[in-house]
Proline--tRNA ligase (Prauserella isguenensis), 1164 residues
Amino acid sequence: MITRMSSLFLRTLREDPADAEVPSHRLLVRAGYVRRAAPGGYSWLPLGLRVLRNIERVVREEMDAIGAQEIQFPALLPKEPYVATGRWSEYGDTLFRIKDRKGADYLLGPTHEELFTLAVKGEYSSYKDYPVMLYQVQTKYRDEARPRAGVLRGREFVMKDSYSFDLDDEGLEASYRKHRGAYIRIFDRLGLDYVIVAATSGAMGGSASEEFLATAEAGEDTYVRSTDSGYAANVEAVVTPAPPARALEGLPEAQVHHTPDTPTIETLVDFLNGAGLVREFTAADTLKNVLVKTRMPGQKEWTLLGIGVPGDREVDMKRLEAGLEPAEVALVEEADFAANPFLVKGYIGPGALQANGVRYLVDPRIVTGTAWVTGADKADHHVVDLVCGRDFTPDGTIEAAEVREGDASPDGHGTLVAARGIEIGHIFQLGRKYADAFELDALGPDSKPVRITMGSYGIGVSRLVAAIAEQHHDELGLVWPRAVSPADVHLVVAGKDDTVFEGGERIVGELSQRGVSVLFDDRTVSPGVKFADAELIGVPTIVVVGKGLAKGVVEVKDRATGERTEIDVDAVVDHVTGLVRG
Amino acid sequence: MITRMSSLFLRTLREDPADAEVPSHRLLVRAGYVRRAAPGGYSWLPLGLRVLRNIERVVREEMDAIGAQEIQFPALLPKEPYVATGRWSEYGDTLFRIKDRKGADYLLGPTHEELFTLAVKGEYSSYKDYPVMLYQVQTKYRDEARPRAGVLRGREFVMKDSYSFDLDDEGLEASYRKHRGAYIRIFDRLGLDYVIVAATSGAMGGSASEEFLATAEAGEDTYVRSTDSGYAANVEAVVTPAPPARALEGLPEAQVHHTPDTPTIETLVDFLNGAGLVREFTAADTLKNVLVKTRMPGQKEWTLLGIGVPGDREVDMKRLEAGLEPAEVALVEEADFAANPFLVKGYIGPGALQANGVRYLVDPRIVTGTAWVTGADKADHHVVDLVCGRDFTPDGTIEAAEVREGDASPDGHGTLVAARGIEIGHIFQLGRKYADAFELDALGPDSKPVRITMGSYGIGVSRLVAAIAEQHHDELGLVWPRAVSPADVHLVVAGKDDTVFEGGERIVGELSQRGVSVLFDDRTVSPGVKFADAELIGVPTIVVVGKGLAKGVVEVKDRATGERTEIDVDAVVDHVTGLVRG
């Protein structure tokens, strides 16, 4: 295929667009791949659409290879199935809702669990029908509060979503593994540098869940990885290694101290160390009790919940929320203190909470036999040497404390460091949530119904264009991997005389006959403009037909390395075809 | 490619779906190509999606061949461009409107004239940039009052829409011709029987316009064609041949007659013929004056309009509306008669209308020198021999009278007959409406701005699946043309012993290696079920591997003709590959 730049619907920009903060956004706009058409809505110009289609092709090939079958649902969906699963309300403002001319409620699909479940229920009935994996490559809609960074986080975007349907947990595990393998092959083929992190589930409910994050400074997702092992996880999914429980014997008695004006951990530690007690204290010796309130979806009433964390760490609300999902979490207000006079603000201890029936969950570091300084449930008083398992017994543990760089890696190897990434894929063992909602059963061999278990798997297809661009660019422009480049070769005619144009035409024609797609710069602009555009556009191989043609040579430049090679004009078609075929 | 029916997400239905009235809907559902997911919203199951993709590929190839460039816009669009062109309100209830979380107005794109115009304005500035043709294959949304017949008229559907941008009318004409040619090639390749009819413009405003209608009883569009020539037109676009004007000299004077109880044409004609006047009258000798009211978009006030048609014809509101576009048309009510006492209901004549400033348009048959019986603007009175051009002078002509079978063809050859079709394509010279709305100019060679002129061209891609099915089916099921079939060959293993399964596998493997795609019925159901499904699904070539295998033969059946041929098993791969390659 030959694409002539003289007629291509493409105008590159020399200036960065004002609203572009990240490199991929800046370069995809400057190089004429995308244009903003609405807040969070982008138009794909010819070269951008080709990159998108190339990615879609790789995704489809690998999905087909694991036996997933492509179907396609509408994007405009009736409300009822989403009401049945609760997502009509759970999605909140993120869901685009719409009424038709009769006033009936619709939504623009954010993901399609409901529709796929109903589709399988509609077609299949026997255990012999299963397992099945279905997918679609489709436009999705989410009314993001902050669409940003071009196609990195849009409100309308292309997603591959797939769903597996199995008779039992082993089947689900196998489908999940197949998807995991397919995702690895897809992202490898697309030339991406990525990590697979343990993840929490978001609003979808379920169990095992991993995210594929393309490593990128521009990423919105923070994750942690180990310095010494392959461990990586979303901050929400980091599991704190619990120290071993200690013996209770011989530990000092708990003592209440008058600690005036110590409402913060810092003032408390200073006071204690100034009081000349038997030992020195640090913030890590204190037990900070944070009060929140929670309610389950559909509930009206809030319930108080106490959270205990070591005093040297803050409560990370995202980790706390992930740990309490699907419950909603809110901070307590003055009215809550007023309604519960046993709560002594700044001096809350486990005692009053548990005596008054408030559930109390603690950080996993707070194990039996550990001794703490904490609130004595009395203004200006703290208790020292309050021992877990002796003086108080938590109702359970929760991952609510912040994760810090330098924390031990949960796998026991190395320490954690923070990094940023772009979520490009998510694989997720949904379990039976949706099958329960719609009573998706198969008739088993014993004629008894078997409830189906599902997996849900997504790839942000249009986002991948940005993720790849984030990882494949330099100061001059984009540097596409071969698998996604909008053309195999960018051929520049540098010179004004007919000979070079004719030479270019001839080479382009021969390459095209070999099945090599060529972006052919046949414009009558200056060589400088053409070279700058070639660097900006980022096709991996650039062929320059110019002055050298008189001597029988053309120049072949590798966009990534900048390496230039003079090639005999009669050999250039073979040479370039070889490069393209890899 | 091999598609195994043992694992394919496909369940055929023996019964017709209750809501399916037309053959394509019935068969596409029964054969498992589509499923209803919402009112006017359909899911594409694996085989249906393949047919859709095959059609898309043909469309893209022919669009690319005329130099059109593919891009893609969002479907969720901001209101402002559609307000600028008036379409935000003109579309009425057909437009899906939506508010985002901030309360901003959006719409789901019904067509994208606005966005394409703005895109070209954004990239191009010089006359050297033009002409350009751009297209997209995209999901469109229209809140149809009556979605019907499956994917024939949905509310969410796939459309190819393209737009041409030219510097002058000659350029537009050339772009229009190119599209016309591409559409002919597309519909020919898809095996469609269709007519190209002169059309009116709908809500888009502009001049030359043709529709491609697939001939089908199930079609919603009525058109007329000549018995003796290639003439075909939408009823709205039929131009009535005007008879020559006649000399006024020697015509009898107009005379008013008392005609009691003759409020209808029929009673009037009976009365006149019973009155023993000098000649007999027919309904065609009477002039029926119909009163309507109109207002232009944006206007509040209605204006009365008189329409005169020969009394033997009804006013066809669709033709009248098309003739008055973009004005809105409504019937007059009692209140209008009350407010205008000069209107004598049942006895309205041209005189009172014109004396009171009511615009009066007549059928083209009402030419100078024709004499009419019409209302005398006085209850129970008519005037006879009221002569056009002598006793009244209309303000102009209008195509408002019904078109009837047997009317003379406007091209002078033969008479008109009515037929029904499915609109599959529309090509349309938009002119400068959108360029004016957005001031799309090119800087000319003389540095003066040149207003761009546009064409708009659409193909109903998902509707084509239904249109093809309407034309290609029989009582047993679908009969796909090769170009769109979901597979090249349907191979049925008929028999239970391993030999036939192994024989089938071997043939399927060899065909696949030759690049022939095979739908392989490897299920363990009865041969009868398999044969019925093969007929229903409609792949053009069916290969049956059964008992004959022992004798070294398999059966090759042509789905369309029903012809069966025994082929030597060693020759079948060559034979079938030959059929597929055509």
Remarks:
- Chain B touches chain A through 52 residues (CB under 8 Å).
